[in-house]
Specification:
- It is a single chain.
- The protein has 278 residues and is an alpha+beta fold.
- Helices cover 19% and strands 33% of the residues.
- It is built from five helices and 16 strands.
- The chain has a four-stranded mixed beta sheet with strand order 4-3-6-7, sandwiched between helices. A four-stranded antiparallel beta sheet has the order 13-10-15-16, with no helix packed on it. A three-stranded antiparallel beta sheet has the order 2-1-5.
- It is globular.
Amino acid sequence: MKNIFKSFRKHSSKTSMSEKSMSDSTSMSGDSMTSTQPSSMEVPRSGGDAPMMNADNNTMSMDDDKMMASATIQPLTVLELFQSQGCSSCPPANTNVLRLIDSDPNLLILTYEVTYWDHLGWTDTFGRSAHDDRQRQYVRALKKRSAYTPQCIVNGRVDGVGSNSKDLDSLIKKGTEVTPTNVIVKVSADQVTVNGSQGGLVQMVRYDPRTHNVSIPRGENAGRNIPHRNVVKDVTQLGSWRGGSQTFSLPKKGKDGLEAAILVQAVPGGPVIGAARV
């Protein structure tokens, strides 16, 4: 630990982040910061019509084919990781999450760098206070005692540390074991249409799909070179969806190499009820 962190521990009633257990998660509540053992947490994871052969008379059934297509199309699962370059507990979760990026086309990975550990000796190069605010929305909605890092949130429904790959797989499975929504998100060149019976907030998340390796010279991760990918740059509110079919305009895509996705959430920090890549 660095001296600055030792000084901070004198004013905290709980234990601080420790490098001796990389699977520990570090939490923040108000002005106090604590370490949380993952073992104490619940870590539970169209195309055109084509005819199909009828086995009885070798005829084609369009209705049967539509039923089969609807049964095989999987919704987009959203995994959001909140972490910090200044948190020694974060690298294992970061490694596990990055391994999943190219593993499943129906899994969208978004990584958010928070700023509330910047005082520990290293300022996160991708940190944004808006990410802190988004994480706090989830903390309130999920009825957690405090924010912590690393925190993996699946579909806005369940959360866990993510430092153990098996636990992360289980978390993703648990986050997708819910009754499917009837929300359909359709993206065209310059607009997105949301259709369904619910309602909520429509957001566009822009993120960097490229890999950035960051050398950390100070703080708890001093001496490490940490890879980053799918780093969120900004979240734009496109508007409020009132249910039914509603269309929203998309900002023009820049030439900055960023990619984007649409997230529909029932309430701020609530379940992700619809998602699509742009």
